[in-house]
Specification:
Largest interface: A-B, 98 and 88 residues
Radius of gyration of chain A: 24 Å
CATH topology of the largest domain in chain A: MetI-like fold
Distance between the termini of chain A: 45 Å
CATH class of the largest domain in chain B: Mainly Alpha
Organism (chain A): Umezawaea tangerina
Number of helices of chain B: 14
Number of domains of chain A: 2
Protein name (chain A): Putative spermidine/putrescine transport system permease protein
CATH class of the largest domain in chain A: Mainly Alpha
InterPro entries (chain A): MetI-like, MetI-like_sf
Radius of gyration of chain B: 23 Å
Number of strands of chain A: 0
Order of helices and strands of chain A: HHHHHHHHHHHHHH
Order of helices and strands of chain B: HHHHHHHHHHHHHH
Structural class of chain A: mainly alpha
Largest sheet of chain B: none
Family (chain A): Belongs to the binding-protein-dependent transport system permease family.
Oligomer: heterodimer
CATH architecture of the largest domain in chain A: Orthogonal Bundle
Keywords (chain A): Cell inner membrane, Cell membrane, Membrane, Transmembrane, Transmembrane helix, Transport
Structural class of chain B: mainly alpha
Distance between the termini of chain B: 44 Å
Helix content of chain B: over 70%
CATH superfamily of the largest domain in chain B: MetI-like
Number of domains of chain B: 2
Helix content of chain A: over 70%
CATH topology of the largest domain in chain B: MetI-like fold
CATH superfamily of the largest domain in chain A: MetI-like
Shape of chain B: globular
Strand content of chain B: under 5%
Protein backbone atom coordinates (compact mmCIF):
# COMPACT_ATOMS: atom_id res chain seq x y z
CA UNK A 1 0.00 0.00 0.00
CA UNK A 2 2.61 2.52 1.12
CA UNK A 3 4.70 1.84 -1.93
CA UNK A 4 1.79 2.65 -4.19
CA UNK A 5 1.27 5.97 -2.44
CA UNK A 6 4.96 6.74 -2.75
CA UNK A 7 4.93 5.85 -6.42
CA UNK A 8 2.33 8.46 -7.05
CA UNK A 9 4.16 11.17 -5.08
CA UNK A 10 7.68 10.48 -6.34
CA UNK A 11 7.56 9.08 -9.85
CA UNK A 12 11.32 8.33 -9.75
CA UNK A 13 11.03 5.57 -7.15
CA UNK A 14 9.12 2.95 -9.10
CA UNK A 15 10.33 0.13 -6.91
CA UNK A 16 11.26 1.59 -3.50
CA UNK A 17 12.86 -0.22 -0.59
CA UNK A 18 10.21 -0.26 2.16
CA UNK A 19 11.14 1.74 5.27
CA UNK A 20 10.51 -1.16 7.64
CA UNK A 21 13.06 -3.24 5.79
CA UNK A 22 15.69 -0.57 6.42
CA UNK A 23 14.77 -0.50 10.11
CA UNK A 24 14.99 -4.28 10.24
CA UNK A 25 18.39 -4.16 8.54
CA UNK A 26 19.56 -1.64 11.12
CA UNK A 27 18.47 -3.97 13.93
CA UNK A 28 20.35 -6.90 12.40
CA UNK A 29 23.44 -4.69 12.06
CA UNK A 30 23.10 -3.88 15.76
CA UNK A 31 22.84 -7.60 16.55
CA UNK A 32 26.04 -8.18 14.59
CA UNK A 33 28.07 -5.42 16.19
CA UNK A 34 26.75 -4.28 19.56
CA UNK A 35 27.08 -7.39 21.77
CA UNK A 36 30.83 -7.67 21.37
CA UNK A 37 31.29 -3.99 22.22
CA UNK A 38 30.18 -4.73 25.80
CA UNK A 39 33.69 -5.98 26.53
CA UNK A 40 35.11 -2.45 26.14
CA UNK A 41 33.39 -0.75 29.12
CA UNK A 42 34.02 -3.97 31.07
CA UNK A 43 37.75 -3.66 30.47
CA UNK A 44 37.85 -0.40 32.45
CA UNK A 45 35.97 -1.92 35.37
CA UNK A 46 37.25 -1.69 38.93
CA UNK A 47 35.39 -4.84 39.96
CA UNK A 48 36.96 -8.23 40.59
CA UNK A 49 33.96 -10.01 39.11
CA UNK A 50 32.14 -9.86 35.75
CA UNK A 51 29.61 -7.40 37.22
CA UNK A 52 27.86 -5.18 34.66
CA UNK A 53 27.58 -2.21 34.55
CA UNK A 54 31.07 -1.68 36.01
CA UNK A 55 31.00 -0.10 39.49
CA UNK A 56 33.89 2.26 38.75
CA UNK A 57 36.64 3.23 36.35
CA UNK A 58 40.10 1.72 36.56
CA UNK A 59 43.11 0.82 34.41
CA UNK A 60 43.80 -2.13 36.70
CA UNK A 61 42.80 -4.85 34.23
CA UNK A 62 45.08 -3.52 31.50
CA UNK A 63 47.84 -3.13 34.07
CA UNK A 64 47.38 -6.74 35.10
CA UNK A 65 47.29 -7.92 31.49
CA UNK A 66 50.60 -6.26 30.67
CA UNK A 67 52.40 -7.15 33.90
CA UNK A 68 51.09 -10.60 34.86
CA UNK A 69 53.50 -13.21 33.42
CA UNK A 70 50.66 -15.71 32.88
CA UNK A 71 48.89 -13.34 30.48
CA UNK A 72 52.08 -12.00 28.91
CA UNK A 73 53.49 -15.47 28.26
CA UNK A 74 50.26 -16.65 26.69
CA UNK A 75 50.21 -13.54 24.48
CA UNK A 76 53.81 -14.21 23.41
CA UNK A 77 53.02 -17.87 22.73
CA UNK A 78 50.06 -16.90 20.58
CA UNK A 79 52.17 -14.48 18.57
CA UNK A 80 54.84 -17.12 18.07
CA UNK A 81 52.41 -19.85 17.00
CA UNK A 82 50.38 -17.53 14.77
CA UNK A 83 53.45 -16.10 13.02
CA UNK A 84 54.90 -19.54 12.28
CA UNK A 85 51.47 -20.78 11.18
CA UNK A 86 51.00 -17.81 8.85
CA UNK A 87 54.43 -18.43 7.33
CA UNK A 88 53.94 -22.16 6.82
CA UNK A 89 50.30 -22.00 5.72
CA UNK A 90 50.98 -19.20 3.24
CA UNK A 91 53.92 -21.05 1.66
CA UNK A 92 52.14 -24.37 1.41
CA UNK A 93 48.76 -22.88 0.51
CA UNK A 94 50.10 -20.58 -2.19
CA UNK A 95 51.99 -23.44 -3.83
CA UNK A 96 48.83 -25.54 -3.78
CA UNK A 97 46.66 -22.75 -5.18
CA UNK A 98 49.07 -22.05 -8.02
CA UNK A 99 49.28 -25.75 -8.85
CA UNK A 100 45.51 -26.15 -8.77
CA UNK A 101 44.97 -23.14 -11.02
CA UNK A 102 46.95 -24.93 -13.75
CA UNK A 103 45.38 -28.34 -13.29
CA UNK A 104 41.94 -29.48 -14.15
CA UNK A 105 40.04 -32.71 -14.16
CA UNK A 106 38.53 -34.85 -11.47
CA UNK A 107 41.72 -35.42 -9.48
CA UNK A 108 42.41 -31.69 -9.17
CA UNK A 109 38.84 -30.96 -8.11
CA UNK A 110 39.08 -33.73 -5.54
CA UNK A 111 42.38 -32.36 -4.21
CA UNK A 112 40.81 -28.92 -3.82
CA UNK A 113 37.85 -30.37 -1.95
CA UNK A 114 40.12 -32.37 0.35
CA UNK A 115 42.11 -29.23 1.16
CA UNK A 116 38.88 -27.43 2.06
CA UNK A 117 37.78 -30.16 4.49
CA UNK A 118 39.29 -28.51 7.60
CA UNK A 119 36.98 -25.52 7.10
CA UNK A 120 33.82 -27.66 7.30
CA UNK A 121 34.97 -30.43 9.65
CA UNK A 122 33.74 -29.66 13.19
CA UNK A 123 36.72 -28.30 15.11
CA UNK A 124 35.89 -30.46 18.13
CA UNK A 125 36.24 -33.66 16.07
CA UNK A 126 39.52 -32.42 14.60
CA UNK A 127 40.70 -31.43 18.07
CA UNK A 128 39.93 -34.84 19.57
CA UNK A 129 41.60 -36.75 16.74
CA UNK A 130 44.64 -34.45 16.73
CA UNK A 131 44.91 -34.65 20.51
CA UNK A 132 44.84 -38.44 20.61
CA UNK A 133 47.46 -38.73 17.83
CA UNK A 134 49.67 -35.93 19.10
CA UNK A 135 49.73 -37.54 22.56
CA UNK A 136 51.38 -40.56 20.97
CA UNK A 137 53.75 -38.45 18.90
CA UNK A 138 54.67 -36.29 21.93
CA UNK A 139 53.51 -33.14 20.15
CA UNK A 140 51.01 -31.88 22.74
CA UNK A 141 52.12 -28.73 24.48
CA UNK A 142 54.85 -28.07 21.90
CA UNK A 143 55.17 -25.12 19.54
CA UNK A 144 55.55 -27.57 16.64
CA UNK A 145 52.31 -29.34 17.53
CA UNK A 146 50.34 -26.09 17.67
CA UNK A 147 51.85 -24.84 14.41
CA UNK A 148 51.14 -28.08 12.53
CA UNK A 149 47.54 -28.31 13.71
CA UNK A 150 46.84 -24.63 13.08
CA UNK A 151 48.48 -24.75 9.66
CA UNK A 152 46.17 -27.57 8.59
CA UNK A 153 43.10 -25.47 9.40
CA UNK A 154 44.61 -22.23 8.02
CA UNK A 155 45.57 -23.60 4.57
CA UNK A 156 41.99 -23.40 3.16
CA UNK A 157 41.86 -19.67 3.87
CA UNK A 158 45.13 -19.12 2.00
CA UNK A 159 43.91 -21.36 -0.79
CA UNK A 160 40.71 -19.34 -1.20
CA UNK A 161 42.39 -15.92 -1.21
CA UNK A 162 45.23 -16.91 -3.53
CA UNK A 163 42.82 -18.70 -5.88
CA UNK A 164 40.75 -15.51 -5.95
CA UNK A 165 43.82 -13.48 -6.89
CA UNK A 166 44.76 -16.01 -9.57
CA UNK A 167 41.33 -15.60 -11.16
CA UNK A 168 42.55 -12.70 -13.27
CA UNK A 169 45.98 -14.17 -13.93
CA UNK A 170 46.87 -14.79 -17.55
CA UNK A 171 48.61 -18.18 -17.78
CA UNK A 172 50.17 -17.13 -21.11
CA UNK A 173 52.51 -14.88 -19.15
CA UNK A 174 54.21 -18.02 -17.84
CA UNK A 175 54.65 -19.38 -21.35
CA UNK A 176 56.16 -16.06 -22.36
CA UNK A 177 58.47 -16.16 -19.37
CA UNK A 178 59.49 -19.77 -20.08
CA UNK A 179 60.13 -19.02 -23.75
CA UNK A 180 62.50 -16.28 -22.60
CA UNK A 181 64.46 -18.92 -20.71
CA UNK A 182 63.17 -18.57 -17.14
CA UNK A 183 62.93 -21.70 -14.98
CA UNK A 184 59.46 -22.45 -13.49
CA UNK A 185 60.63 -21.26 -10.07
CA UNK A 186 62.06 -18.05 -11.49
CA UNK A 187 58.86 -17.49 -13.47
CA UNK A 188 56.87 -17.92 -10.29
CA UNK A 189 59.00 -15.47 -8.29
CA UNK A 190 59.33 -12.83 -11.01
CA UNK A 191 55.97 -13.10 -12.80
CA UNK A 192 53.26 -14.88 -10.79
CA UNK A 193 54.10 -13.69 -7.29
CA UNK A 194 54.07 -9.94 -7.95
CA UNK A 195 50.71 -10.26 -9.70
CA UNK A 196 49.04 -12.22 -6.91
CA UNK A 197 50.86 -10.57 -3.99
CA UNK A 198 47.63 -9.09 -2.66
CA UNK A 199 46.01 -12.53 -2.48
CA UNK A 200 49.07 -13.96 -0.76
CA UNK A 201 49.14 -11.13 1.77
CA UNK A 202 45.41 -11.49 2.47
CA UNK A 203 45.88 -15.23 2.91
CA UNK A 204 48.76 -14.70 5.33
CA UNK A 205 46.68 -12.27 7.40
CA UNK A 206 43.77 -14.70 7.54
CA UNK A 207 46.08 -17.58 8.49
CA UNK A 208 47.53 -15.46 11.29
CA UNK A 209 44.08 -14.58 12.65
CA UNK A 210 42.81 -18.16 12.37
CA UNK A 211 45.73 -19.38 14.46
CA UNK A 212 45.81 -16.46 16.89
CA UNK A 213 42.13 -16.89 17.68
CA UNK A 214 41.89 -20.70 17.59
CA UNK A 215 40.68 -22.09 20.89
CA UNK A 216 39.23 -25.58 20.53
CA UNK A 217 42.34 -27.43 19.32
CA UNK A 218 44.48 -25.25 21.58
CA UNK A 219 42.43 -26.35 24.60
CA UNK A 220 43.34 -29.95 23.87
CA UNK A 221 47.00 -29.36 23.02
CA UNK A 222 47.71 -27.14 26.02
CA UNK A 223 50.18 -28.10 28.69
CA UNK A 224 50.88 -26.39 32.03
CA UNK A 225 54.05 -25.03 30.46
CA UNK A 226 52.67 -23.83 27.16
CA UNK A 227 49.28 -22.35 26.43
CA UNK A 228 48.02 -19.70 24.05
CA UNK A 229 46.02 -16.60 24.86
CA UNK A 230 42.56 -17.89 23.87
CA UNK A 231 43.16 -20.81 26.27
CA UNK A 232 44.16 -18.43 29.05
CA UNK A 233 40.99 -16.45 28.30
CA UNK A 234 38.99 -19.68 28.49
CA UNK A 235 40.58 -20.48 31.85
CA UNK A 236 39.79 -17.03 33.16
CA UNK A 237 36.07 -17.62 32.56
CA UNK A 238 35.80 -21.26 33.57
CA UNK A 239 38.37 -21.72 36.33
CA UNK A 240 39.59 -18.43 37.68
CA UNK A 241 36.83 -15.77 37.22
CA UNK A 242 39.56 -13.30 36.30
CA UNK A 243 38.12 -10.08 34.78
CA UNK A 244 41.46 -9.44 33.05
CA UNK A 245 39.81 -11.31 30.17
CA UNK A 246 37.84 -8.17 29.37
CA UNK A 247 41.07 -6.24 28.76
CA UNK A 248 42.36 -9.13 26.66
CA UNK A 249 39.05 -9.29 24.75
CA UNK A 250 39.06 -5.55 24.06
CA UNK A 251 42.59 -5.74 22.70
CA UNK A 252 41.66 -8.75 20.54
CA UNK A 253 38.58 -6.98 19.18
CA UNK A 254 40.66 -3.90 18.42
CA UNK A 255 43.46 -5.90 16.78
CA UNK A 256 41.16 -8.06 14.66
CA UNK A 257 39.12 -5.04 13.60
CA UNK A 258 42.28 -3.29 12.42
CA UNK A 259 43.65 -6.41 10.73
CA UNK A 260 40.30 -7.23 9.18
CA UNK A 261 39.69 -3.77 7.83
CA UNK A 262 43.22 -3.61 6.38
CA UNK A 263 42.67 -6.13 3.54
CA UNK A 264 39.28 -4.54 2.83
CA UNK A 265 41.04 -1.21 2.35
CA UNK A 266 43.79 -2.80 0.26
CA UNK A 267 41.15 -4.43 -1.90
CA UNK A 268 39.20 -1.17 -2.13
CA UNK A 269 42.25 0.69 -3.36
CA UNK A 270 43.16 -1.99 -5.87
CA UNK A 271 39.55 -2.06 -7.07
CA UNK A 272 39.61 1.67 -7.69
CA UNK A 273 42.90 1.37 -9.51
CA UNK A 274 41.37 -1.20 -11.83
CA UNK A 275 38.35 0.96 -12.44
CA UNK A 276 40.50 3.86 -13.44
CA UNK A 277 42.17 1.85 -16.15
CA UNK A 278 40.77 2.60 -19.60
CA UNK B 1 58.74 -32.25 -23.66
CA UNK B 2 56.20 -34.95 -23.05
CA UNK B 3 52.75 -34.04 -21.79
CA UNK B 4 53.20 -36.70 -19.14
CA UNK B 5 56.06 -34.76 -17.61
CA UNK B 6 53.97 -31.61 -17.36
CA UNK B 7 51.20 -33.56 -15.70
CA UNK B 8 53.40 -34.93 -12.95
CA UNK B 9 55.48 -31.84 -12.29
CA UNK B 10 52.24 -29.85 -12.17
CA UNK B 11 51.16 -31.85 -9.14
CA UNK B 12 54.43 -31.31 -7.25
CA UNK B 13 53.56 -27.97 -5.57
CA UNK B 14 50.44 -29.63 -4.16
CA UNK B 15 52.44 -32.23 -2.27
CA UNK B 16 53.39 -30.18 0.83
CA UNK B 17 49.80 -29.05 1.43
CA UNK B 18 48.36 -32.52 0.93
CA UNK B 19 51.10 -34.13 3.04
CA UNK B 20 50.49 -31.70 5.87
CA UNK B 21 46.77 -32.24 5.73
CA UNK B 22 47.25 -36.00 5.65
CA UNK B 23 49.68 -36.00 8.57
CA UNK B 24 47.79 -33.62 10.80
CA UNK B 25 44.22 -34.44 9.93
CA UNK B 26 43.63 -37.54 7.84
CA UNK B 27 46.00 -39.88 9.68
CA UNK B 28 44.72 -38.86 13.15
CA UNK B 29 41.13 -39.19 11.93
CA UNK B 30 41.95 -42.56 10.40
CA UNK B 31 43.64 -43.75 13.56
CA UNK B 32 40.68 -42.56 15.59
CA UNK B 33 38.37 -44.53 13.35
CA UNK B 34 40.52 -47.68 13.58
CA UNK B 35 40.62 -47.38 17.35
CA UNK B 36 36.85 -46.96 17.49
CA UNK B 37 36.25 -50.26 15.69
CA UNK B 38 38.97 -52.40 17.29
CA UNK B 39 39.00 -53.95 20.69
CA UNK B 40 41.61 -55.09 19.48
CA UNK B 41 39.51 -57.32 17.23
CA UNK B 42 37.05 -55.76 14.84
CA UNK B 43 34.01 -54.67 16.80
CA UNK B 44 31.10 -52.30 16.45
CA UNK B 45 30.49 -52.26 20.20
CA UNK B 46 31.53 -48.61 20.54
CA UNK B 47 28.95 -47.63 17.96
CA UNK B 48 26.26 -49.81 19.52
CA UNK B 49 26.90 -48.11 22.86
CA UNK B 50 26.11 -44.76 21.28
CA UNK B 51 22.56 -45.97 20.67
CA UNK B 52 22.09 -47.83 23.92
CA UNK B 53 23.80 -45.72 26.60
CA UNK B 54 20.75 -43.48 26.88
CA UNK B 55 22.84 -40.31 26.95
CA UNK B 56 24.29 -39.97 23.46
CA UNK B 57 20.98 -40.07 21.61
CA UNK B 58 19.41 -37.52 23.97
CA UNK B 59 22.38 -35.21 23.50
CA UNK B 60 22.37 -35.68 19.72
CA UNK B 61 18.66 -34.89 19.63
CA UNK B 62 19.17 -31.78 21.74
CA UNK B 63 22.05 -30.71 19.49
CA UNK B 64 19.94 -31.16 16.36
CA UNK B 65 17.10 -29.18 17.94
CA UNK B 66 19.43 -26.34 18.91
CA UNK B 67 20.98 -26.31 15.44
CA UNK B 68 17.50 -26.25 13.88
CA UNK B 69 16.44 -23.32 16.07
CA UNK B 70 19.60 -21.41 15.15
CA UNK B 71 18.90 -22.14 11.48
CA UNK B 72 15.33 -20.84 11.62
CA UNK B 73 16.42 -17.72 13.51
CA UNK B 74 19.24 -17.12 11.03
CA UNK B 75 16.84 -17.50 8.10
CA UNK B 76 14.30 -15.08 9.59
CA UNK B 77 17.02 -12.50 10.19
CA UNK B 78 19.17 -13.27 7.19
CA UNK B 79 16.61 -13.32 4.37
CA UNK B 80 15.41 -9.72 4.75
CA UNK B 81 18.98 -8.60 5.37
CA UNK B 82 20.27 -10.29 2.21
CA UNK B 83 17.32 -8.84 0.29
CA UNK B 84 18.17 -5.38 1.60
CA UNK B 85 21.77 -5.89 0.47
CA UNK B 86 20.60 -6.43 -3.11
CA UNK B 87 18.50 -3.29 -3.06
CA UNK B 88 20.87 -0.62 -1.72
CA UNK B 89 23.69 1.20 -3.51
CA UNK B 90 27.17 -0.30 -3.87
CA UNK B 91 28.57 1.72 -0.98
CA UNK B 92 25.87 0.71 1.50
CA UNK B 93 26.14 -2.86 0.22
CA UNK B 94 29.86 -2.86 0.99
CA UNK B 95 29.18 -1.69 4.53
CA UNK B 96 26.42 -4.27 5.06
CA UNK B 97 28.80 -6.96 3.83
CA UNK B 98 31.65 -5.99 6.16
CA UNK B 99 29.18 -5.85 9.04
CA UNK B 100 28.04 -9.42 8.28
CA UNK B 101 31.59 -10.68 8.46
CA UNK B 102 32.56 -8.91 11.69
CA UNK B 103 31.19 -11.51 14.15
CA UNK B 104 32.88 -14.29 12.18
CA UNK B 105 36.25 -12.62 12.44
CA UNK B 106 35.84 -11.28 15.98
CA UNK B 107 37.82 -13.26 18.52
CA UNK B 108 35.84 -16.34 19.54
CA UNK B 109 36.67 -15.88 23.19
CA UNK B 110 35.91 -12.14 23.17
CA UNK B 111 32.56 -12.77 21.52
CA UNK B 112 31.55 -15.50 23.95
CA UNK B 113 32.78 -13.51 26.93
CA UNK B 114 30.67 -10.58 25.76
CA UNK B 115 27.62 -12.86 25.69
CA UNK B 116 28.41 -14.04 29.23
CA UNK B 117 28.34 -10.42 30.41
CA UNK B 118 25.14 -9.65 28.52
CA UNK B 119 23.18 -12.75 29.49
CA UNK B 120 24.42 -13.23 33.06
CA UNK B 121 22.31 -12.82 36.20
CA UNK B 122 22.04 -9.06 36.72
CA UNK B 123 23.29 -8.34 33.20
CA UNK B 124 21.90 -5.89 30.63
CA UNK B 125 19.39 -8.32 29.12
CA UNK B 126 17.90 -9.07 32.51
CA UNK B 127 17.77 -5.33 33.32
CA UNK B 128 16.04 -4.63 30.02
CA UNK B 129 13.38 -7.25 30.77
CA UNK B 130 12.91 -5.78 34.27
CA UNK B 131 12.04 -2.45 32.61
CA UNK B 132 9.08 -4.00 30.83
CA UNK B 133 8.05 -5.84 33.98
CA UNK B 134 9.41 -9.30 33.26
CA UNK B 135 11.52 -10.45 36.18
CA UNK B 136 14.38 -12.89 36.65
CA UNK B 137 15.16 -13.55 33.03
CA UNK B 138 18.41 -15.49 33.16
CA UNK B 139 19.55 -16.72 29.76
CA UNK B 140 23.07 -17.54 30.91
CA UNK B 141 23.33 -21.27 31.49
CA UNK B 142 20.38 -22.07 29.22
CA UNK B 143 20.10 -23.35 25.67
CA UNK B 144 18.17 -20.19 24.75
CA UNK B 145 21.28 -18.16 25.53
CA UNK B 146 23.43 -20.57 23.55
CA UNK B 147 21.03 -20.28 20.61
CA UNK B 148 21.12 -16.47 20.61
CA UNK B 149 24.92 -16.36 20.69
CA UNK B 150 25.23 -19.02 18.00
CA UNK B 151 22.76 -17.24 15.72
CA UNK B 152 24.92 -14.12 15.77
CA UNK B 153 27.98 -15.90 14.41
CA UNK B 154 26.07 -18.22 12.05
CA UNK B 155 24.23 -15.39 10.28
CA UNK B 156 26.98 -14.75 7.70
CA UNK B 157 26.62 -18.34 6.47
CA UNK B 158 22.94 -17.66 5.82
CA UNK B 159 23.28 -14.15 4.44
CA UNK B 160 26.03 -14.76 1.87
CA UNK B 161 24.51 -17.64 -0.13
CA UNK B 162 21.17 -15.81 0.01
CA UNK B 163 22.76 -12.58 -1.18
CA UNK B 164 24.25 -14.24 -4.20
CA UNK B 165 20.94 -15.95 -5.09
CA UNK B 166 18.68 -12.97 -4.44
CA UNK B 167 21.02 -10.69 -6.37
CA UNK B 168 20.65 -12.82 -9.47
CA UNK B 169 16.84 -12.68 -9.52
CA UNK B 170 15.49 -10.35 -12.17
CA UNK B 171 13.41 -7.78 -10.33
CA UNK B 172 11.48 -6.96 -13.49
CA UNK B 173 9.60 -10.20 -12.88
CA UNK B 174 8.26 -8.73 -9.66
CA UNK B 175 7.29 -5.51 -11.37
CA UNK B 176 5.60 -7.53 -14.08
CA UNK B 177 3.59 -9.42 -11.45
CA UNK B 178 2.63 -6.11 -9.85
CA UNK B 179 1.72 -4.68 -13.22
CA UNK B 180 -0.56 -7.64 -13.80
CA UNK B 181 -2.40 -6.73 -10.63
CA UNK B 182 -0.95 -8.90 -7.89
CA UNK B 183 -0.33 -7.42 -4.45
CA UNK B 184 3.27 -6.95 -3.26
CA UNK B 185 2.85 -9.89 -0.86
CA UNK B 186 1.46 -12.19 -3.52
CA UNK B 187 4.16 -11.10 -5.97
CA UNK B 188 6.79 -11.92 -3.39
CA UNK B 189 5.48 -15.38 -2.51
CA UNK B 190 4.56 -16.41 -6.02
CA UNK B 191 7.52 -15.00 -7.94
CA UNK B 192 10.44 -14.01 -5.74
CA UNK B 193 10.40 -16.74 -3.06
CA UNK B 194 10.38 -19.73 -5.46
CA UNK B 195 13.33 -18.25 -7.35
CA UNK B 196 15.28 -17.79 -4.11
CA UNK B 197 14.80 -21.32 -2.80
CA UNK B 198 18.25 -22.49 -3.97
CA UNK B 199 19.95 -19.90 -1.81
CA UNK B 200 17.62 -20.63 1.11
CA UNK B 201 18.46 -24.33 0.85
CA UNK B 202 22.22 -23.68 0.74
CA UNK B 203 22.08 -21.29 3.71
CA UNK B 204 19.85 -23.59 5.76
CA UNK B 205 22.04 -26.63 5.18
CA UNK B 206 25.22 -24.73 5.90
CA UNK B 207 24.04 -23.10 9.11
CA UNK B 208 22.48 -26.31 10.43
CA UNK B 209 25.59 -28.35 9.70
CA UNK B 210 28.07 -25.90 11.15
CA UNK B 211 25.88 -25.45 14.22
CA UNK B 212 26.12 -29.16 15.06
CA UNK B 213 29.81 -28.90 15.95
CA UNK B 214 29.82 -25.84 18.23
CA UNK B 215 31.91 -26.37 21.33
CA UNK B 216 33.03 -23.12 22.96
CA UNK B 217 29.65 -21.38 22.98
CA UNK B 218 27.66 -24.19 24.65
CA UNK B 219 30.57 -24.95 26.98
CA UNK B 220 30.71 -21.35 28.21
CA UNK B 221 27.10 -20.19 27.93
CA UNK B 222 25.15 -23.42 28.35
CA UNK B 223 24.86 -25.76 31.29
CA UNK B 224 26.56 -29.12 31.78
CA UNK B 225 23.12 -30.69 32.35
CA UNK B 226 22.01 -29.51 28.92
CA UNK B 227 25.23 -30.30 27.08
CA UNK B 228 25.51 -30.55 23.30
CA UNK B 229 27.35 -33.23 21.39
CA UNK B 230 30.67 -31.38 21.22
CA UNK B 231 30.79 -31.13 25.00
CA UNK B 232 30.02 -34.83 25.32
CA UNK B 233 32.84 -35.58 22.92
CA UNK B 234 35.31 -33.41 24.84
CA UNK B 235 34.24 -34.93 28.13
CA UNK B 236 34.69 -38.51 26.92
CA UNK B 237 38.13 -37.62 25.60
CA UNK B 238 39.72 -35.57 28.36
CA UNK B 239 37.84 -36.60 31.48
CA UNK B 240 36.98 -40.24 30.84
CA UNK B 241 40.00 -40.86 28.57
CA UNK B 242 37.78 -43.29 26.69
CA UNK B 243 39.39 -42.70 23.31
CA UNK B 244 37.57 -45.55 21.55
CA UNK B 245 34.12 -44.35 22.62
CA UNK B 246 35.02 -40.73 21.94
CA UNK B 247 36.35 -41.75 18.53
CA UNK B 248 33.10 -43.50 17.64
CA UNK B 249 31.07 -40.44 18.58
CA UNK B 250 33.50 -38.16 16.74
CA UNK B 251 33.21 -40.27 13.59
CA UNK B 252 29.42 -40.11 13.73
CA UNK B 253 29.51 -36.31 14.04
CA UNK B 254 32.10 -36.00 11.27
CA UNK B 255 30.21 -38.23 8.86
CA UNK B 256 26.91 -36.45 9.49
CA UNK B 257 28.63 -33.12 8.89
CA UNK B 258 30.44 -34.13 5.71
CA UNK B 259 27.37 -35.82 4.23
CA UNK B 260 25.23 -32.75 4.90
CA UNK B 261 27.89 -30.42 3.48
CA UNK B 262 28.29 -32.57 0.37
CA UNK B 263 24.52 -32.54 -0.11
CA UNK B 264 24.30 -28.78 0.46
CA UNK B 265 27.11 -28.33 -2.01
CA UNK B 266 25.06 -30.12 -4.63
CA UNK B 267 22.04 -27.96 -3.92
CA UNK B 268 23.85 -24.63 -4.08
CA UNK B 269 27.52 -23.61 -4.17
CA UNK B 270 28.10 -23.98 -0.47
CA UNK B 271 31.85 -24.36 -0.48
CA UNK B 272 32.13 -21.15 -2.45
CA UNK B 273 29.90 -19.50 0.16
CA UNK B 274 32.35 -20.69 2.78
CA UNK B 275 35.15 -19.16 0.78
CA UNK B 276 33.30 -15.88 0.74
CA UNK B 277 32.80 -15.92 4.49
CA UNK B 278 36.41 -16.90 4.91
CA UNK B 279 37.83 -14.05 2.91
CA UNK B 280 35.03 -11.57 2.33
CA UNK B 281 35.31 -11.72 -1.44
CA UNK B 282 31.82 -12.20 -2.84
CA UNK B 283 31.32 -12.94 -6.49
CA UNK B 284 28.67 -10.45 -7.32
CA UNK B 285 26.27 -11.59 -9.93
CA UNK B 286 24.15 -8.44 -9.89
Amino acid sequence: MTSQVKTRRRPVAVDPVPWWLKVFGGLVVAFFILPTLFVIPMSFSSATTFQFPPPGFSWRLYENFFTNPVWLDSLGNSFLVASLTALLATTVGTAAAVALSRLDGKAARFARTVLMVPIVAPSIVVAVAVYISFLGWRLTGTVGGYVLAHTAIAVPYVLVSVTGALGGFDQRLLKASASLGASPLRSFVRVTMPLISRGILTGAIFAFIVSFDEVVIALFLRSPLFQTMPVQMYNSVTVEIDPTISAASSLMVLAVTIIFILPQLLRGRAGRRQERRP
Amino acid sequence: MSSNKIRWSGWLPLVPALALLAGVLLVPLGKTFVRSVSNPDLTLANYEHLFTDGVTMTVLGRTALTAATVTVAALLLGYPYAYLMTRVGPRARGILLVVVLIPFWTSVMARNFAWIIILQDGGPVQSAFELIGVHDVVLYGTNAGVTIAMTQVMLPFMVLPLFSTLGSIDRKLLLAARGLGSSPTAAFWKVFWPLSRGGVMAGVMLVFTLSLGFYVTPALLGSPQQSLVAQLLAQRTTLLLDFAAAGALGMVVLVITLVLVAWANKVGGTVSALGVVATGQPKERV
